[in-house]
Specification:
Elements (H helix, E strand, L loop, with lengths): L13 E4 L5 H9 L3 E2 L8 E3 L4 E4 L8 H8 L4 E4 L3 H10 L1 E2 L2 E2 L5 H12 L3 E8 L2 E11 L2 E9 L4 H15 L4 E5 L3 H5 L3 E3 L1 H11 L11
Length: about 220
């Protein structure tokens, strides 16, 4: 099992087509900054975009509008309490008036299996007993590969993301992979870097891959 080198991706970032979503293949992909993203009617498409949108934990920007939520928190935060439910919530949130159809049952099953193996993680934001926001992704060593987030109320996903980044910084994480550049992420301190620079960080991360740490 192998992938082409990420530098062989086309100008859109597409590296390979086909394969499966087995745990072995997904873990191999993430080690080299490759991720799956495809519509349900398509074969699995593997991506390695250049440039890459990332966030250095120490460069996190907390907007002034968010600070009151942390000074007098009205929400509670948990980790890994309902991973599959977070994925399903991300699936149902409209993006540009379109339901996020790329998160289909095969993706949910594959990443839920990664979660049971200790690689995939979720962040949950609660208002009492109601799940109002969250996000999920894959942690390998000291890099977190963010996949998707959702909000049922304004700023809930930002609250979860900011809280997670702060926790990961305290655990020595080097990088948050945001995959795609968005104004939402840039506003929180993300930036784009060349793919080769991103791969250099991943290579330095190899020594930690077998012992991923994540907040409890």
């Amino acid at each position: 099992m192998y992938f082409p080198h990420p530098s062989l991706a086309d100008s859109d970032g597409i590296l390979a087509i086909g394969g499966d979503l087995s745990e072995e293949r997904l873990l191999l992909a993430y080690q080299f900054g490759i991720f799956p993203w495809y519509n349900p009617e398509d074969p699995i498409i593997w991506w390695a975009p250049d440039p890459r949108c990332v966030l250095i934990p120490s460069e996190l920007h907390v907007p002034k509008s968010m600070r009151s939520l942390f000074n007098q928190p009205k929400w509670t935060l948990t980790y890994d309490q309902c991973f599959t439910r977070v994925m399903e919530s991300c699936q149902l949130i409209p993006r540009n008036s379109i339901i996020s159809s790329w998160i289909q049952e095969p993706m949910i099953e594959a990443y839920s299996a990664l979660h049971r193996s200790g690689w995939a993680h979720s962040v949950e934001v609660w208002n009492g007993d109601e799940l109002v926001g969250g996000l999920y992704g894959v942690a390998m060593g000291r890099v977190f590969f963010g996949e998707s987030m959702f909000s049922q109320v304004p700023n809930a996903s930002k609250y979860g993301f900011i809280s997670m980044v702060r926790a990961l910084e305290s655990l020595g994480y080097q990088l948050i992979d945001c995959q795609q550049r968005t104004q939402h992420l840039l506003f929180l301190g993300a930036k784009t870097i060349p793919r080769e620079e991103f791969l250099q960080v991943l290579r330095s991360n190899f020594k930690w891959i077998d012992s991923p740490a994540f907040p409890k």
